[in-house]
Amino acid sequence: MKSLFHNIILFVLSIVISFLVLSCILRIFFPIYSPNAKSKHKNDNFFEYSSKYGWFHKKNISTWIETQEYATKVYINNKNLRGKEHPYEKPKGAKRIIVLGDSFAFGLGVEDEETFSYKLEQLFKANGENVEVVNMGVDGFGTTQEWLLLKEEGIKYSPDMIICLFFTGNDIENNSRGFEYGQNKPFFTIKNNNLVLENYPVPKNSANAGYSQEQESRWRVNIPVIKKFLQTHSYAYVFLRLRYNYLLYRLGIRSSFDNNSGSQAWDITKAIFLKMNDYCHNNKIKFLNVLVPTKEQMLSIEPIDIQKKIAAFFNDNKLDYLDLFPSLVHRKDLNFTIDSHWNKKGHEYIAKLLYERLKQSYE
Q1: Do the strands 187-191 and 194-198 form a parallel or antiparallel pair, or are they unpaired?
Q2: Which of 33, 129, 320, 362 is deepest in the core (most CB within 10 A)?
Q3: Would residue 134 count as lying in a domain?
Q4: Structural domain tally of the chain?
Q5: Nearest to 287, CA basis, from 299, 274, 303
Q6: Residue 4 in domain
Q7: pLDDT mean across residues, the chain
Q8: Interatomic CA distance for residues 25 and 22, integer angstroms
């Protein structure tokens, strides 16, 4: 009996030691497998409650964001948007592009004048084209919130084109739940083949209104304490989890398109795409969807089934889109090593890709 107990202890110790050794090796030679980088906001947090979107930027605030990889200043203008402020009235002879999206559009990790929105405007100006680019990206936003922001604020700028970034890592899932990042948010359901906006106006968190406890349990995943600890502290866990998921994809046990989203979330997302496209068409606005790949896809750890499915939908419905994956795959120099967001070089590269795609429209 003692021998069995000793063997169990040795086995557990060998696992723990191997785990620690692997973590040390990954930390030194493969920092890209770092656990989630924690960011902290110096000065006041620049978000506030919004009955329309769940959360939105405070106006006229200057702050900065610091992680282990970057420290960047952030200025939110009088219209609650990042960077340079544009008047609603479009200058005579000018063209306007509105950029919608989440943290990739917002430019998490880079300065205001390093975002691809700013760089894209500069590329147009350098080539003699009078084109303004308004960055309406908001950290954490999904397509539902972006659609509402377009209707509420974006249209006031009299845009000629809408660029909507779609992050394949979580945007499908985001569109079908009313609680995220500790905040209530609006979301769509489909009833009688029609999109129905729920949780709107968005209740404050303390109100706990707009959805049932049963619904909230579906939206909020209770992660065991040990798993949560490993996700935020262990290089080895992140590495092994990614490799394990990739093995399941290759064996056909798990589809990468599932992405914890389910078919209902995908149906809702498709309906939002079509709704936005029809809105833009009716207002004579060009509409371009831009597919943003995950870090795992760029490293060829995760398949691109999601992109293929979305692209097929866009092609079937004649929606214009740009898939960034072919241009970003294996480009480790465009993202922060730990954080998955684009660095300064990445934003410059994205701006050039978009300019090459769009310049024919303004020649």
Answers
A1: antiparallel
A2: 33
A3: yes
A4: 1
A5: 274
A6: no
A7: 85
A8: 5
What are the phi and psi torsion angles at 331 (to 5°)?
Answer: -90, 85
| Rounded-to-integer distance, Cα 233 and Cα 122, Å | 40
Confidence at 224, pLDDT banded by 50, 70, 90:
low
DSSP three-state, residue 125: helix
- List alpha helices for the chain, DSSP H: 2-29, 103-106, 116-126, 143-152, 171-174, 213-219, 225-233, 235-251, 262-282, 295-298, 305-316, 325-328, 344-358
**Residue at 246 is within a domain:** no
Find, among 113, 110, 56, the residue nearest to 84 by Cα: 113
Residue 201 lies in a domain: yes
In tens, the pLDDT along 20-34 reads: 787 788 666 666 566
Label residue 220 by pLDDT band (50, 70, 90). very low
For 122-131, 191-200, 220-229, 233-242, which range has the lowest pLDDT when averaged over its residues?
220-229
Antiparallel, parallel or unpaired: β 161-167 and 95-100: parallel
State residue 185's pLDDT score. Answer: 96
